[in-house]
Amino acid sequence: MNTNDQSSQILAGFLLQIKAIKLNPSKPFTWASGLKSPIYCDNRITLSYHKIRTYIRQEFVRLLLEQYEKPDLIAGVATGGIAQGVLVAQELGLPFVYVRSEKKSHGLTNQIEGVVETGQSVIVIEDLISTGGSSLNAIEALREAGADVKGMIAIFTYGLKIAHDNFSKASCALTTLTNFDALLQKAMEENFITDTDLRSLMSWKLDPKAWSDLVNNGL
What we know:
There is one protein chain. By secondary structure, the chain is an alpha/beta fold. It contains eight helices and ten strands. It has one domain: 3-Layer(aba) Sandwich (Rossmann fold). It has helices spanning 5-17, 50-67, 80-92, 133-144, 161-169, 180-189, 195-206, 208-216; strands at 21-23, 29-30, 36-37, 39-41, 73-77, 96-99, 112-113, 121-129, 148-157, 174-179. It has a six-stranded mixed sheet with strand order 7-6-5-8-9-10, sandwiched between helices. Strands 1-4 form a two-stranded antiparallel ribbon. Strand 2 and strand 3 (36-37) form a beta hairpin. The radius of gyration is 18 Å and the shape is globular.
């Protein structure tokens, strides 16, 4: 989790201001899984804002150096973690690779694009953690390639229990620049949401499927 409450709040404010994260319990979003959700996150939008993009890069580097030793390699998870990972690798003067969700069905059938050498220490960069499934798939691919994955750093996490459990099972450390709780605090302070919205968002976090089922049933 994030180790600096002030920077977490600052970034949460940025994400709300540019609508990289949208909160709307009364008009839920539909995720790719089909579930209804009161929150939608697209951190790719941050790349269009130089000030915010720079802040995120600096926070990635700060947390990386605070939490880990400087690695041999930076890896980004496709697609959201690619640009962010390149920025971090450039700042640290390190090589970079990115990891696809699965192997290509043609050509060299690569899942990892770039050079990974056996025993290299790696920090993985991701933009968003929901259940953790796709992120941990990338970590597994890096481990199979012989990399020594030290941990993952992401911009934002929904803070779902399933993600916590999945990372624990995979024995992978996870750090995020900001998180769901910091976001809700900032959203209340700046009047992005009401007390009723807050209760609904907290209910969703406890059980996203149950929340979605209630919405679909018109309750």
